[in-house]
Amino acid sequence: MTIQITDSAANKFKSMTSDQNMFPRIEIVAGGCNGFEKRFSMSKPESDDVVMKLQNDTFIVLDEYSYEMLDKSVVDYKQSITGNFFSTEIPEAVSSCGCGSSFSL
What we know:
CATH class: Mainly Beta
Distance between the termini: 18 Å
Number of domains: 1
Largest sheet: 4 strands, antiparallel
Strand order of the largest sheet: 2-3-9-8
CATH architecture: Sandwich
Order of helices and strands: EHEEEEHEEEE
Shape: globular
CATH superfamily: HesB-like domain
Strand content: over 45%
């Protein structure tokens, strides 16, 4: 399994990590207007979570389901005139909503 985290996303995740017990979490859940929704939050790792060490020595956590759903994905952090946000390119997604927060397989 491979999830690519860009340097921009890794640096943003690192800047979010101030508490040694809380880590950025990427989660895929049922919902949204296209079937699945991507969520980014901060949380403590659970015993069955996948903990990924990033290229800048920070960590992110994912539950097993989200880890499998994000296989071959690219997570990036984009800064633009309209706002700053995490983006996730999921190669197996067949469609996504207009705002990019949900997708279908």
